[in-house]
């Protein structure tokens, strides 16, 4: 979830979002790192969007905050469209990170999924601003996988975990490290449909406002 800001004089459309982290595995350094990862992935493509017959450069401004004192009521009563709340723990049921649906502002991250230049946070952020997994998950011959392709997608060999493994077998599916935000992902956001107010602001995504308790094995 975030807030879009239209700046016609600068030909800019800026998506502002604040990622607020809590949980036993969260800390200040990790909050800054994850926010930077998300921002870098979404800005790498130097995306464009056409709004009312004018082309805008799309930029993402992502802040990361660790709030060790966060409580459930802070999440439930939040009305700021820029705020997103994610619990980070070493353990997550099913060994996966997730957000609470398409167009949401809350979720639960497994620490391991966020390390080593992972694309997990950028992928999950895409869900929070309205993007689903693509329907066709065999993209062999189509080049670089976009950020919203899930694990298990069939890709060209050099995008697999192990290039020498036959497609579909263990190790023969997409290594998420190779996902990138493409212009097609920016197009899928349908930014031209946002209802900008007189000051040029619009909400992108919606409030799920779910507080997550720590999961245990």
Task: Provide a descriptive summary of the structure in words.
The chain has 217 residues and is α/β, with parallel strands linked by helices. The protein has two domains: 1-131 and 189-217, no CATH class; 135-188, no CATH class. Helix content is 17%, strand content 24%. The chain has helices at residues 28-43, 72-76, 120-128, 183-188, and strands at residues 2-7, 12-22, 48-51, 54-66, 83-89, 98-99, 106-110, 201-204. Strands 1, 2, 3, 4, 5, 6, 7 and 8 form an eight-stranded mixed sheet that branches. A hairpin with a 2-residue loop joins strand 3 (48-51) and strand 4. The longest helix is centred in the first third of the chain and has 16 residues, at 28-43. The mean pLDDT is 97.
Question: Mind sketching the topology for me?
Answer:
Layout: E1 2-7, E2 12-22, H1 28-43, E3 48-51, E4 54-66, H2 72-76, E5 83-89, E6 98-99, E7 106-110, H3 120-128, H4 183-188, E8 201-204
Parallel strand pairs: 2-4, 2-5, 5-7
Antiparallel strand pairs: 1-2, 1-8, 3-4, 6-7
Helix pairs in contact: 1-3
State the helical fraction: 10-25%
The low-confidence runs, each spanning 5 or more residues with pLDDT under 50, are: none
* Mean pLDDT, all residues: 97
Helices and strands, in order, run as EEHEEHEEEHHE
**Strand content bin:** 15-25%
Q: How many alpha or pi helices?
A: 4
* Structural class designation: alpha/beta
Give the C-alpha Rg. Answer: 18 Å
Domain unit count? 2
């Amino acid at each position: 979830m975030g807030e879009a800001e239209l700046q016609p004089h600068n030909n800019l459309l800026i998506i502002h979002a604040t990622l607020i982290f809590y949980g036993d595995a969260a800390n200040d350094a990790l909050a800054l790192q994850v926010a930077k990862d998300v921002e870098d992935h979404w800005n790498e493509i130097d995306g464009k969007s056409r709004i009312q017959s004018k082309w805008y450069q799309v930029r993402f401004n992502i802040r990361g905050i660790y709030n060790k004192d966060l409580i459930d009521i802070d999440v439930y009563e939040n009305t700021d469209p820029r705020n997103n709340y994610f619990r980070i723990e070493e353990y997550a049921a099913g060994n996966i990170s997730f957000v609470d649906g398409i167009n949401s502002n809350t979720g639960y991250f497994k620490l391991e999924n966020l390390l080593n230049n992972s694309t997990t946070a950028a992928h999950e952020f895409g869900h929070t601003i309205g993007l689903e997994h693509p329907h066709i998950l065999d993209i062999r011959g189509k080049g670089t996988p976009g950020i919203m392709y899930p694990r298990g997608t069939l890709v060209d060999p050099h995008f697999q975990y192990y290039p020498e493994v036959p497609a579909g077998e263990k190790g023969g599916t997409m290594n998420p490290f190779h996902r990138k935000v493409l212009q097609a992902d920016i197009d899928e956001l349908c930014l031209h449909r946002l209802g900008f107010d007189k000051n040029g602001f619009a909400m992108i995504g919606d409030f799920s406002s779910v507080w997550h308790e720590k999961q245990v094995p």
